[in-house]
Amino acid sequence: MVLWKLNLRHLRAVAEICERGSISAAAHAVNLTQPAVTQGIARTESLIDQPLFDRTPEGMVPLPSAQIILPRICAALDHIASSRVTMAQLRALIAFSDHGSYAAASAASGLSQPSLHRAIADLSVVLRRTLLERRGKGLVLTEAGRRVVRGFRLARVELAAGLAELDGVKGRETGRIVIGAMPLSRARILPAAAAAFHARHPEVSVSIVEGSYAELAGPLRDGEIDLLIGAMRTPLPEPGLVQTALFEDRPVILGRKDHPLADQIPPDDAKQGHAVLSLLADYPWIISAPGTPLRAQWERMFADAGIAVPRVPIECGSVITIREILTKSDFLTLLSRDQLSVELEAGWVTELWAAPSGILRRIGVTTRLGWRPTPLQQAFVDELHRQAS
Predict the structure, then answer these.
(1) Is the domain of 353 the same as that of 317?
(2) Domain end position, chosen among 172, 192, 223
(3) Same-domain pairing of 339 and 373
(4) Degrees (nearest 5) of the Cα angle 380, 386, 389?
């Protein structure tokens, strides 16, 4: 992987040359000799297979390739937050964090255990922080170690994005987009967007990671996920994230095809809302756990009508599990039509009643604050908006 072959001090020299316009000034800023800077720039250009500067008598003039990667280099160095960290140390700490032990990190990365030990030990000295501590028979990251590795992961994301953008200049579409998918997004919008995006960009890898907001928000902040799609949170419980709306979804009450209430509830009869909710409250519900937007909307639906919230014997966010329980019992649920569209079309479940008009879920895209998408990542986001519209 080209990224791990890059030298952080050489990248810092690239940034300094862009700012100062000469190798001599950059050499002084990064504490290297001028020949070392010259060799470092040449090595970097060889790795990325593109020239970065036009050498002129007046100085070093940044080429478009340097202007493309410069913001990524600066962002990565800001996340690393130390001029003494090496790429080997950055890689070693991420590998340990990802795999939980030196042995597993060595097997996954191909680096020897002694080199991993040495890199992380040296990093602790450089940063003057204890990064690992013994717990039981193993080692775990300290709180300081977790903060450092989060910055390192974000630095890796920035550099990988910069390399992908440089490939785009050469006409090569490379890279990988990692999407966090919460339940509703998996029904229609994300599959449609992924298929349309792949048709336009077949060389780009799209990885979809399924989970709840609680499971996906941390990896999003750490840079392991590029964007998260699903129900928007108000207010956002995680700092450092921002949301952009895609569409509004009006959930409905669903039950099995021959549910006892199937013939008792007039469809979409808002005038009899209190009476209908009273009937619905007599049955058991399977609904997502407290703290999710859908659960909050469901509770508000009854509270606004002055009816005690019915019991929830089973809490579940899995559509597959909900479907199986609905078809085999008198349970009710509140979901989007899209989430059980196949079951509705097949006649396995039926829509008993549309929720009151105020019961809405806003579905959107969540990203890191200050996230700068690559052109391909932006193309994927644009495709999501096209599918939503």
Answers:
(1) yes
(2) 172
(3) no
(4) 145
Torsion of CA 148, 152, 153, 156, to 10 degrees: 180
Does one domain contain both 149 and 184?
no
**Surface-to-core class of residue 365, CB atoms within 10 Å of its CB (0-12 exposed, 13-18 middle, 19+ buried):** buried
pLDDT digits (tens, 9 = 90+) for 58-93: 889 999 999 999 999 999 999 999 999 999 999 999
Structure tokens at 241: 């994230």
Contact 232, 363 (CB under 8 A): yes
Q: What is the pTM of this model?
A: 0.84
Comparing CA positions, the residue from 204, 251, 194, 246 lying closest to residue 366 is 246
132 shares its domain with 38? yes
CA distance 109 to 120: 14
Residue 42 CB neighbours (<10 A) = 13
**pLDDT tens column, 166-213:** 988 877 777 789 999 988 777 788 999 999 999 999 989 999 999 889
276 and 300: one domain? yes
Q: Quick check: 187 and 370 in contact, CB under 8 A?
A: no
Question: What DSSP string runs through 32-50?
Answer: --HHHHHHHHHHHHHHHTS
The domain in which residue 88 lies consists of 1-172
Does residue 300 share a domain with residue 242?
no
Tokens encoding 6: 């890059």
* 155 & 88 share domain: yes
Cα gap 258→228, rounded to integer Å: 37
